Amino acid sequence: MTNISQHIEFLLRRHDCVILPTIGAFIASYRAAHINNEWGIITPPKREIYFNASINNNDGLLANSIARKNRISFEAANRLLLQEIEKIRTHLEHEKEYSVGKLGIIHYGKEANLDFEPFKSDVQYNSHYGLLQFKMKTLAEIENENISSVSQQAPVVTRRSDKNYYIPVNKQFARYAAMFIVVFFAAISLSVPLGQNQNQEFASIVPIKKTIIQTTEELQKTVVEDTIAPQPVEMEMAEKVVETVAPECYAVVATVRSIKEAEKFIRQANTDKELRVITIGKMSRVYTNCGKRDEIAKIISNPEFQQEFPGAWIWQPKK
């Protein structure tokens, strides 16, 4: 079975006009990149697809493509093309519309004329896919950001009302210092002779030694509890933060104007991949995967993925 839509999509990447005999012509129009100075927005170059029902003569371009694909003669390919066109006309009479692959939908308009409603998919702009519209920053905005970043990194020194400086000290360091001071003075007190009275010497050493051991254990226990106990809490908080991070990029295969059109696109797509829809503003996008940019780039650069979705592109939502 010949898929006319795939031949039209393939030829539009290399030609500016592809004629579907007796129905109409698909015309690719190039729009150059331009800058909106008022809003500071740069729009990349792109190609848009239009339809003209008055251009319907058979120029042989589609028939040649079918002949090369199926390795048959031009005459046999032309007969096959006419059979497929007859099927398209029958489908239009019953359903009043026909989906041309990922390009758009042909339907009957006013006075029974054929109209074409394109999908806002990157298939139309295949030579420029991956280029997104973005806003330029003015020199004043960049300078303000630099000033704010420097001010945030500068150390804040708080002054007390009595004109003394307050110097923050790490609590863990303070505990270690206190423990060291207690042990140091205890060692000095044990090394200093206390006189000739042995009874008094023994009476003074025992309680001091007991006090030193108890203080050291308490300090060590406090230090261990403060340094080890918070770890599960920090790991738990880190896991929660990871769970709330939104995907960075999406592998978009089509962009349409409503969820209804996106659902219709998914129903008509011939694929075993899971297609999902994300809607931001007035546009809905159909995508297959989401994640980091380098991961999505590997997915869409895969030859099998490109063959199934030749117009796939990377979309990174504005933050």
What do these coordinates show?
This protein starts with a helix and ends with a strand. The relative contact order is 0.10. Strand 1 and strand 2 (24-31) form a beta hairpin. The chain is 46% helix and 21% strand. It has helices spanning 4-12, 61-70, 74-95, 139-153, 171-191, 198-228, 230-243, 259-268, 293-300, 303-308, and strands spanning 17-20, 24-31, 34-36, 41-43, 46-52, 97-100, 104-108, 114-118, 134-135, 249-256, 276-280, 283-291, 313-315. The strands form four sheets. Strands 11-12-10-13 form a four-stranded antiparallel β-sheet. By secondary structure, it is of the alpha+beta class. The chain is built from ten helices and 13 strands.
Structure at a glance:
46% of the residues lie in helices and 21% in strands. It has ten helices and 13 strands.
Characteristics:
319 residues, alpha+beta, 10 helices
How does the SSE layout of this entry go?
Layout: H1 4-12, E1 17-20, E2 24-31, E3 34-36, E4 41-43, E5 46-52, H2 61-70, H3 74-95, E6 97-100, E7 104-108, E8 114-118, E9 134-135, H4 139-153, H5 171-191, H6 198-228, H7 230-243, E10 249-256, H8 259-268, E11 276-280, E12 283-291, H9 293-300, H10 303-308, E13 313-315
Antiparallel strand pairs: 1-2, 2-5, 3-4, 4-9, 6-7, 7-8, 10-12, 10-13, 11-12
